[in-house]
């Protein structure tokens, strides 16, 4: 929690739970970024700046602009947030094992593949 702004990572993560992975939405089973295991970490500066580090599901993910804009929109609504920046990785490290256990258990059927998603 930022001592100056009172912002907490749990508040930010709560807002990121409102952003869904477009590939899971397209398959008919929406999964938010947090439960999908795409949020690597969140840092909060004393000046209200929030940095979100995402793990992309694929190096070919062409939906990063959507993930960025929706993450910024959702987190910017939190009182005390001054700015939001999203930092994606190269899409080489994510695996389905990073999903929340509840999501993995709920996925009896595999997600339908969409170009650029795995």
Automatic annotation (TrEMBL):
It comes from the Bacteria. It comes from Nocardioides humi. PANTHER family: FE-S PROTEIN MATURATION AUXILIARY FACTOR YITW. InterPro entries: Fe-S_Maturation_MIP18, FSCA_dom_sf, MIP18-like. Residues 11-86 form the MIP18 family-like domain. Pfam families: FeS_assembly_P (PF01883). This is MIP18 family-like domain-containing protein.
């Amino acid at each position: 929690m930022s001592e100056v702004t009172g912002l907490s990572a749990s508040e930010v993560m709560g807002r990121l739970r409102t952003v869904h992975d477009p590939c899971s939405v397209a398959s008919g089973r929406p999964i938010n970024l947090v439960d999908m295991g795409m949020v690597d970490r969140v840092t909060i500066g004393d000046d209200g700046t929030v940095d979100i580090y995402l793990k992309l599901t694929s190096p070919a993910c062409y939906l990063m602009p959507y993930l960025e804009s929706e993450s910024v929109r959702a987190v910017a609504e939190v009182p005390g947030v001054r700015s939001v920046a999203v930092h994606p990785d190269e899409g080489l490290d994510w695996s389905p094992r990073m999903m929340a256990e509840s999501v993995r258990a709920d996925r009896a059927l595999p997600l339908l593949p969409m170009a650029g998603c795995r």
